[in-house]
Amino acid sequence: MPKPDLSSRHFQRRISNFCEVRIAPIASKRALENIRPYLVSLVVYRKSPPLVNGRIAWMTIAAACGIEDELTPDLKKQFRIALDAIIRWLGAPRIAEDDQPMKQAPRSKQTDQRRSATTAPSTRTPRRIGGDEPDARLGSAQKGPEAKPILPFPDPLFEATKDPADFQESLVYHMRRFGESYWQLYRAVIRLGETFDDKTLLSWVEGDRVPRSVTSFGILSRIEQRYRLPAGYFKGKLPHQSRSLHGHDLGDISPAERRRLAWHLPDDFSSLPFARREEILEWVRRVIISGSTDYRRYQAAAVKQRYAIRFPGITYGGGSLSPRSQSLTISTNQNAAETFEDPDLLSGVVDAPPRLAMEMADLIRFKTSTLTAIGFQRNGVWGEETASQKIEHLGLMFGALAASPAGAVKGRGVPLGQLTFGLLIFPGVWDWYLQWREQRRGFYTKWEEDMLMVAQALTRSEVGWIRQHPELLKTVQPIEGLVAPEEIEFAARDWHGACDAFHRHAANRSKEVQRVMRVHRDPFEPIRNTDAHA
Fold it and tell me: Are 495 and 417 in contact, with CB atoms under 8 Å apart?
């Protein structure tokens, strides 16, 4: 393999030759055409191969090259030789040839005259490739494989014989049908001037993420058109079909109202004319948000019952996380109530006790900070809107626990001083809250499932915030019917065991809620004509 003192240009040629001699005999022509540009690009851009815990990330490489089904042990062995050579070459000092322009070949006066007569002056910036050749106009043309041309509608390598139900499997399957890597697909569907990140497309291919925004759905639509698939083909394979899109152009509408409106807006809302968008918003507010359904009557009654815990001192990004505190100072009438996604969000009037407020602040700092504190681990971060929502939802839960059983809310009556996040690892606390919400509304909804998902995330092994704070148990006191002294003693002996037991309990409860939860009314069904049933 190449010596470590080779220049970038020479090393690219060595890698290309290596592919012809060692990769071509054991791989298909399509695989070779994908592998060689991938290896050369690592040299051109002086980029290290993807690694996971110090080892080569074969799944990422296979997805980037589009060879998931062709990465045999023999091919992997030869692939590793080339990758190891690139890693060694990157670790060696750069030589002078890589940092200097190539010498211009001598030309005769006659040649210069012909060139000046046939070539118009150009104002284009010289193309730079990884900083290795400062001016592409100097010297001979770049050697190596040419980039695969981008066709608007490429021909498939084989006919579709299956239809995977999973979004990620379906996307990878059709990329393989057309012989494209994720990078080739990215170059084909992203237009000049757009800022869509290629790593987002890679995360779809690897199954780490799924489209959730209006922009992402636009990219999916382009992929469907490119592969000549039916409109909405990929959208129908996404999990969590009940989730709404984010990223709609809603002007200065408050974040809380955005969450309510997003459920009822078409995917192409942002591309519609302004007058049409205003018409849709007016209809949603008038017919759905203010409609005279049973659930809306429940909302109107619920907003009059105040019980939630507020966390007014917690901020994110320089602004208050909770828009509720500002809206409460304006009005508590029906019009103000309609700007919140849940009727209970207007009910917060009790400030959190200092200890609970500090715990909440620590949780928000853990989930929103750029860097995790030393000694802690996390899986994902919360944006401003997500953090605001979690504060409100957890505030409602603590508020229900603290509300008086004799009042209209019919809470649990836990003293404010006993409220702590340490209570959230005990199944009895969650079972009471789930049943309380079901009795209050009459049925389970997506709300309860989402709260159980939060509970699982907080107690997840290694990365859960509660899991990494066993000191929360020190302030937990027994609560009759919710937390028994024996449960506290068990958690004190085996904190991780108690968290594991609750995590399993929350997962089972989530499955049970999913089986019976309801959407109170399909917002896209016509409103029933009540006159006909009078």
Answer: no
